[in-house]
Amino acid sequence: MTPQEEKPFPRQRQEQPGIEAEMTPKPKSGEFEYRGAEKLKGKVALITGGDSGIGRAVAIAFAREGASVAFAYLEEDQDAKETRDIVEREGVRCLAFRGDVGQEAFCADIVGKTVAAFGRLDIVVNNAAEQHYREELEQISEEQLERTFRTNIFSYFFLTKAALKHLQEGARIINTTSVTAFKGSPMLLDYSSTKGAIVAFTRSLALSLAERGILVNAVAPGPIWTPLIPGTFPEEKTEKFGTEVPLKRAGQPVEVAHSYVFLASEGGSYMTGQVLHPNGGTIVGG
């Protein structure tokens, strides 16, 4: 069945952060869809939010391209084990770190452990995120606001800061922003705000690191079928998820993973400070 022929998603709801193993249908992360060509052979990548969704798809794609992979996740042990098993079946090493990327000490720790295990670090993918559905600004508590910013943008600063001492010329930093950074989202005010901050972070960091030959880019997905969706929205919205874009369907994580491979590989060697938009046809500026 092609993506265009897929049926609408059934109604479903999960508690945050969402478990991929409990989704119906399960997202397509590339285990059976992605074919590699050794574009990242010998490289080492560290991915946050790598247990499921886009992060899992990127981990699988990088492994298929020959990279060793380390990833961080919050508490979704079952998803993390499945991701690690899939990656290791590709014949590369994989490390999984359980903890909160919103804490600077944890980010420094996982960078250190990755370099200690693999001897190098070439690709950093800042991807971990959380979002909360709120119909009015007044419903966003101080605690939620801080938590969303800590996960979605503070962690990008923390991880990158720790990684920089290990990154050499030619290294890549890839940040996950969102289409909501460009077109907004009335029910995801704090999430959209962090995604806008990620765009500015990407562009500013790219300028800062250009002389060192470290390339910094971002990917801004549109509606992608990941655990964030049933973990965020009321169940009546899941069955219509993604139908508002020109392609009339949600994207799958594996369809987004190709953008990360491009930016991490030689294909992206003349790009920095840029944003790719796998979003189903939504036209955005910037």
TrEMBL record:
Biased composition regions of type Basic and acidic residues, renumbered to the chain: 1-14
InterPro entries for this protein: NAD(P)-bd_dom_sf, Sc_DH/Rdtase_CS, SDR_fam
GO molecular function: oxidoreductase activity, acting on CH-OH group of donors
Entry's family note: Belongs to the short-chain dehydrogenases/reductases (SDR) family.
Protein name (database record): SDR family oxidoreductase
PANTHER family hit by this protein: NADPH-DEPENDENT ALDEHYDE REDUCTASE 1, CHLOROPLASTIC, NADPH-DEPENDENT ALDEHYDE REDUCTASE-LIKE PROTEIN, CHLOROPLASTIC-RELATED
Ranges that cross the membrane: none
Keywords: Oxidoreductase
Region (Disordered): 1-30
Top-level taxonomic group: Bacteria
